[in-house]
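for the writeup, i need someone to sanity check this before i put it in the appendix. the sequnce is what the collaborator sent (i think, or maybe the updated version? ugh). structure was predicted straight from it, no edits. if anything looks off just tell me and ill rerun, i have time this weekend
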Amino acid sequence: MNTMLRKSVLGIAGLAFTGGVFAGPVAAHADARSVEGKPVAVAVQADKPDTAKLIPHGVQGAQSKITLNDEQTANAKAIIAATKKAGLPERAAVISIATSLQESKLENLGHLGDRNDHDSLGLFQQRPSSGWGTPEQITDPEYSTLAFEKGLKQVDGWQDMPLTEAAQTVQVSAYPDAYAQWEQQAADIVAQHWNS
């Protein structure tokens, strides 16, 4: 077979293969009816974040869970929106929400009088006296989330750390291991609301 003929045959075979690869799956799903003419149920994969990205190390220790009211759910969604605005992945939202669950149960707390821990405010119990911002800024869910995540981004390797270690490095809490108990609920919240 001469070279020109061989190239022509191979070229046609390549086009046929490529057309089959690209058109095949489309053509196979173009008619989603069964032989009897009844519709066939087509499984659609939910567009949710991968659990391996949300909880890459598995949860540590016993997990806590609370039922969220509308305000807490709105605050969780605000944390997710701020995380996206910061250009950070789902894992940052999990760490942020778990931190807020520990610090405030996702409630945007004002000054609690005698029960207040110094001058701690907002979702993350950030302190104006520690340079987190003004009371007005700290009680703004977007601002407080972006401030927390700015601190998180400064932690080398935060993406590869257990949640409690990453959160503690930013928060410097008297109870450094307490964040771990909220990882599963935080991951569930992010999975539910990341793409909503």
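The mean pLDDT is 79. The helical segments are 3-30, 51-54, 70-85, 90-104, 135-138, 141-153, 163-171, 183-193.
thx in advance!!
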